Amino acid sequence: MSALFAVLALGLMLFGARFGLWEPIVGFGLIRTYMNPVAYGVIGLGVAGLIYQLVTRNRSGAVKAGVTCLVGVGILAPMIYVQVQPSVSFPPIHDITTDTGTPPVFIVLDDNRAGAKNTLVYGGPGVATQQHKAYPDIAPIQSSKSAPAAFAEALRVGKAMGWEIVAEDPSGLRFEATARTPIYRFVDDVVVVVTSVGSASRIDIRSVSRIGRGDRGVNAARIREFMKAFEH
Asked: Residue 6 and residue 99: Cα distance in Å, rounded?
């Protein structure tokens, strides 16, 4: 029973923001604070129960206690994984773009967007240098499509990725959107701009986190997913 309550509690911490119970940062903080203590508590209860059930020769009780121990170890698995696997280092930046020289500019979304603590003003050469070092593969998409066709394809990909389109400008070949991370539901802002290059086109993307100094690679991963899904 304790294992079930623990799983339900952790599930609530993880997905509470999805149901509007609190802001994403609250759920993230709850997990960071309580996940390991809950795991240790479940393991402790499971071990104590297992010893008691073995002493009293209650086989079914021992099995249940053993399952409780396994659930506790399962909850502890992320920490164990981090200890075993070499840690991945991410730069302390949260604004990633395919064009660090003249990054796409947000026009509709601004610094007054809900819950935002980060500005949409690009951080300049310092941010660009860190991005190039950490994510050298992030670059503009060069497409053989005409600019209007590339805009339509970019919009299709954005919608397929689950972005909420905030504003689209077919004549200006640009759109702005918001995207959410899958678990904690952190909100990030995205702008996509298409540029005509003769009969072909170039597509630039910029993805910015609303809160947090770093993003643990989330914005770069989003841009990579977009680049992969875009049909040239």
From this structure: 45
pLDDT tens digits, 128-138: 999 999 999 99
Instruction: Kindly report the length of the chain.
Output: 232
User: Residue 73 CA to chain centroid, in angstroms?
Assistant: 25
For 157-161, the CB contacts below 8 A with 24+ separation are: 157/226, 157/229, 157/230, 158/190, 158/192, 158/226, 160/229, 161/222, 161/225, 161/226, 161/229
The pLDDT value recorded for residue 199 is: 96
> At CB < 8 A and 24+ separation, what contacts does 171-178 make?
173/147, 173/148, 174/104, 174/107, 175/151, 176/106, 176/107, 176/108, 176/109, 178/109
Closest CA to 107 of 215, 210, 162, 189: 189
Give the tens place of pLDDT for each residue, 138-187: 999 999 999 999 999 999 999 999 999 999 999 999 999 999 998 888 99
Identify whether the C-beta of residue 109 lies closer than 8 Å to the C-beta of residue 116. Answer: no
Helix, strand or coil for residue 231?
coil
Q: Find the helix or strand (DSSP H, E) in which 146 lies.
A: none
Domains and CATH numbers, the chain: 2-84 (no CATH), 95-229 (3.30.530.50)
According to the model, what pLDDT value does residue 172 have?
A: 97
Low-confidence ranges of the chain (pLDDT < 70): 82, 85-87
